[in-house]
What we know:
Chain A is mainly alpha-helical. In chain A, 71% of the residues lie in helices and 0% in strands.
Amino acid sequence: MSVVASATETRAISAPQGDRAATTVYLAAAACIAVIAIMSAPIVLSFLASIKTAKDASAVPPHYLPSALSLENYLKVIKYQAGLATYVGNSALVALMTIAACVALGAPAGYGLARFTMRGKEIAFLVLLTPVMIPYQSILTPLYLDFAKVGLVNSRIGLAIVHTILQLPFSVYLMRNSFEAIPREIEEAAMVDGCSAWRRLTHIFLPLAVPGLVTVALFAFITSWNEFLAALIFMSRESSFTVPILLVSVRAGHHGAVDWGALQASIVISIIPCLAVYLALQRYYISGLLSGGVK
Amino acid sequence: MQRAGRSRQLQGWLFLVPALLFVAVFVLVPLGQLVAMSATDRSLLGGGKFIGLGNYLKIWNDASFWRALLFTVKYTLILTPILMGLGFALALLTAENTPLKRLTRTMAFLPVVIGLSSSSLLWFWLFDEQVGLFNRLLVDLHVIREPIVWFVTADLAFWAVVISITWKVVGFGMVLFVSGIQSINPDILEAAVMDGAGYWSRVRLMILPLTRRVLLLTTLVSAIGSMLAFDQFYIMTAGGPRGQTFTAVYWIYQNSFVSLRLGYGAALSIVLTLIILVFSTLQIALTARSEEQ
């Protein structure tokens, strides 16, 4: 399932023949450039609007390009309500806890499923996949009531738990596949040397499954950083907002009129971490997507 | 030997216990509570009297819920073919590994990784009748004469959301289809070229049938996502105008967390869960089957 097939392998897919070959190649290139332009335009325009002056960003009719550069909008967002640092901090902490929980729960479970023969194993696997079958949206009410009793509403730990529910099936599934791909001989050699099952996991399997772990962490981050509905319901206090809720709050503004410049600045801030980790770890992201049909 | 086998089984279970406990406590128990709650008239202020199937009977007569569900189905039925068709077209365009086509894939996939709330607000701005650049562009291209007020009618609001979501997730199908196309044995396609099969007949007779499973699986995943739509409508249309763009999840949110009718909201959740269950069971069965190959 490698995306990185060599050029010769894939040539036959289009393989234009004869005189029309050159024309076809140019047309395809033009189409590619059009796709790139259309797909990047909204993000580029949002970024350009974010560095306009506030007045320029609300101009009617709007301009495509800023007439003057200004960080006014960003300064406004930085000081918005409890302060941008609070909201980014909330989102980052929730995401880190989600990553930690997905790895801490998903890796051992994947190991158990991949390397042990047990009666009822596949049933256990299906149980771990229930969050795929039961949409998390439907259990938010009972979770909210339970969490309210134990102080997990407006709590970053509480939200991280919800995000872990969302991401755990994928994590288990991916770790199981990663561990299953490791040759049995390596494990047998370790068993002969008297390594315990736990040591085999931490000293042999985990180091060999680093790509899988990176993928689990990456997906957990993207899911948690972007999740909206649970954050909207569970993080109702202004100081506990995460970044997606901050966005909606910035749009609502104070006096009904939308502060478009501040909105664009906060959108750009919300997008940057996702683009950064995706561009840096694209290979892992795509391979995770391809192996995680179950997600 | 048997002893060793049993202790090894036990060891295996020990590795599964933490994750199983987590799912039991945070998914299965709440699911049980949801079922119990759906049989009561509980609200956030109190209540909780057992009313049996009362809520479900109420759902039967709740025109607003059926309208929301129907709207969600319509959204799914219109959006899914657009996403799959465009995604497949993009995959055909970019399946070769030239630098330009790789770049195109990367750029077309970018919006998939950003937040749905970010993209919905981004498009909310682009569609705005006063400051929106999408309107400005359409005017400049002489497609329209005056900026369109997108969120004033249900139809226009619907298409505004469809356009924004198409931009947001079309890359998802594309990436999966590219991998499907690239996993086709190149010899087969080469042989077809030798036999004089034109481009479109190769697509129709070879590429489409050979990527059938990926197509089906992606369609299912995409359809489930659409059936659970919330963020984009909450942010872009707020369910309006006149409640015409409420989705099923939005209606449940509205009942449970705005009107605080928890018992009724729970019953609605269960109805939706049962509908989704059909899709997701198919999805898991298909994934399992494609693994066997």
